[in-house]
Amino acid sequence: MPTAIRATGLVKKYGAVTALDGLDLEVEEGTVLGLLGPNGAGKTTAVRVFTTLLRPDSGHAEVAGVDVLRHPKELRRRIGVSGQYAAVDEHLTGFENLDMVGRLYHLGAAASRARARELLEQFDLAHAAERVVKGWSGGMRRRLDLAGALVAQPPVLFLDEPTTGLDPRGRVGMWNVIEGLVRGGTTLLLTTQYLEEADRLADRIAVIDHGRVIALGTADELKAQVGGERIEVVLLDPARLTTARHEAAAVGIEEPGVDDRDRRVTVAVDGGTTDLVELLGRLDRAGIEVLEAGLRRPTLDDVFLALTGHHAEAETPSGDTDDPNQPDDPDDPAAGEQEGVA
Ligand SMILES: Nc1ncnc2c1ncn2[C@@H]1O[C@H](COP(=O)(O)OP(=O)(O)O)[C@@H](O)[C@H]1O
Ligand SMILES: [Mg+2]
Predict the structure, then answer these.
(1) Alpha carbon distance 118, 314 (integer Å)
(2) In this predicted model, what pLDDT tens digit does every residue of 68-112 receive, in sequence order?
(3) Neighbouring C-beta atoms of residue 219, cutoff 10 Å
(4) Is residue 52 lining ligand 1, measured as CB closer than 6 Å?
């Protein structure tokens, strides 16, 4: 399979901040790469380099066989980009937004209108086609922004955090749309802070931290790095953590982990619910009150924790802050998937 997106040794510094620190990536044609990392990991910087919006300090990047630095114009014809902040014109209707993009791409008036109608239909926006975007929900705006990236039917697509700030319903709607695209053979590089999003959409996942890839593989391969199932218990009383840890060690197959802040003990097991029942019995006999207990299969978040020592979402209590000049707040609850919110 030919490579659709390639980066070799990309470096990009903003003053003292090294946003990309020797990034290497390859995405095969017709596949989805999930670029997974916390806020500030370098995801947007990488997308900006691939889409010719930013010059790297060093390194090499090409998309669809075209070098980003040598042939930026040609490259732009082959890609679609949809950003973390929906770049739609609020004062235009849904139809007008897409029609305008078609005109920019010189599709011609008739073809441009037809493409706009087709995309509005495909993205479940036909009902809002004649309404100005100003009153649209966050999820609808994101879908329109993505539709805009597809007007010219590019073979390679970049989606930068397509669901950040969306509520669960908007997120699932977006996932369905993206899955449809991918079935059509589009090569996709998708950045995300959401582990379940990469798990669901990506063929391969590159975990990125501090501007470099720290792990690469399928979701299953990454999950395998943290072993199998495990038990988590949350205690009522933090003073009992040490005893609980001791009991967990007796049941588990590895040293238990303790999170003081969350009053949580985590331990890898191989006996499933039998081990869970066993541990709960031990804690009960030791007089330790349990607030929450569960058996968990590993998630990508666990992979991130294992790789970096911190949770993938720990640095992003309220979404992304990488563009302070951006007036729109995608995390604004008012931007939820409720149609007609002004
Ligand atoms: N225009 C900029 N000026 C200075 N620093 C920047 C700029 N853009 C990004 N950065 C910094 O570069 C690093 C990577 O940012 P970014 O690529 O936006 O990460 P991500 O998209 O993964 O959140 C962060 O430390 C961020 O603060
Ligand atoms: Mg970003």
Answers:
(1) 40
(2) 999 999 999 899 999 766 678 999 999 999 999 999 888 999 999
(3) 22
(4) no
**Residues 119-154: b if buried by 16+ CB within 10 A, e if exposed:** bbeebebeebbebebeebbbbbbbbbbbbbbbbbeb
Cα 90 to averaged position of ligand 2 atoms, centre (Å): 22
Q: Is the CB of 160 under 6 A from ligand 1?
A: no
pTM for this structure?
Answer: 0.75
Residue minimizing CA distance to atom 9 of ligand 1: 322
Q: Is 44 in the pocket of ligand 1 (CB under 6 A)?
A: yes
**Which amino acid is present at 305?**
L
Q: How many CB atoms lie within 10 A of CB 35?
A: 28
> Which of 17, 47, 55, 308 to mutate for ligand 1's pocket (most ligand atoms within 8 Å of CB)?
17
> What order of strands is seen across the sheet that includes strand 32-36?
79-82, 156-160, 187-192, 32-36, 204-209, 212-217
CA-closest candidate to residue 306, choices 221, 242, 249, 211 = 221
Ligand 2 centroid to 245 CA: how many Å?
A: 38
